[in-house]
Amino acid sequence: MTYLLDVNMLIAAIWRDHQDQPRVEGWLRGKQMATCPISELGFLRISSGETFPFRAEPQICRNALWEFLRKHRCRFIPDDFSPQRIAAQSSREFTDLYLAELAEQHRMKLATLDTRIFTLAALPSISLIPSARFTNLHQKISKVVLVLRNS
User: Fold this and answer.
1) Structural domains present in the chain
2) What is the average pLDDT score of the chain?
3) How far is CA 97 from the centre of its chain?
4) Cα 116 to Cα 134: distance, rounded to the nearest angstrom
């Protein structure tokens, strides 16, 4: 199984000071991964943004992303369908649903730390990786979302 990494997975995997970095690094070990333009651009935009706690210059962000992709032999998939068919019910759902559909179209699963996505958990293409911040919430949503620990 290949996992399409969303923005928050890339951020936690790449920045060593992120609170979920050890957990994400352990979860990713041995897995096949992929990125897409949305996840890579999101990583670059947030990581170089003024309000990001680990803010870095754009070139440092590009280098960190490139090194991660090279080290993990990440596959790159194109955003190859129109978002017009995404049945989002709110503005917050568009990107999540698009990435989940993109993962499914490429026979992958979307890997995320985003607990807001648990309302979309009926989609088989979403895998929630439990964040250190949400260990209590994990118990509440584990029946709804496929939570991967060591698989």
Assistant:
1) 2-141 (3.40.50.1010)
2) 81
3) 12
4) 11
